[in-house]
Amino acid sequence: MGGTVQTDIDPRSLIGRKAFDRNGTKIGTVDEVYLDDATGVPEWAAVRTGLFSRDAFVPLEPSELVDNTLRVPYERALIKDAPDFGVGRHLSPEQELQLYHHYGLDLSGPPAAPAPASGDRSFGRVAGQED
């Protein structure tokens, strides 16, 4: 493979970069970068997709900057179906939650922690009411 991998992503340097899905299929061009309110860390990128004439939100946490392109480790179909909130506006916590759920990202631990591989994906249950 080769190529340089950057993990400390400068949000300004992302704008205008090409984004590719896990198979190397082009998704589009990074349009906007959204920072975490509390930490200022880049969390989401809005990618302008030529095909769907709208922006698709992709998570920056598992994505990597490889040879000046953003590699998003998801299928293009999943990215295409991400909730569309329009760009230029602030992402509310509710909208972020929808995006986390869409991509199957775990919210319970610190952001960098991988999701537990227990297969427990039911978010709706109330604690203490296991049957």
In short:
This protein has 131 residues and is α+β, with helices and mostly antiparallel strands.
Task: Explain how this protein is built.
By secondary structure, the chain is an alpha+beta fold. The protein has helices spanning 11-14, 76-80, 93-102, and strands at 5-6, 18-20, 26-35, 42-49, 54-59, 64-66, 69-71. The chain has a seven-stranded mixed β-sheet. Residues 109-125 have low confidence and may be disordered.
Task: Write out key terms for the chains shown.
seven-stranded mixed sheet; 131 residues; globular; 7 strands; 3 helices; single chain; alpha+beta
Secondary-structure blueprint:
Elements: E1 5-6, H1 11-14, E2 18-20, E3 26-35, E4 42-49, E5 54-59, E6 64-66, E7 69-71, H2 76-80, H3 93-102
Parallel strand pairs: 2-7
Antiparallel strand pairs: 1-6, 2-3, 3-4, 4-5, 6-7
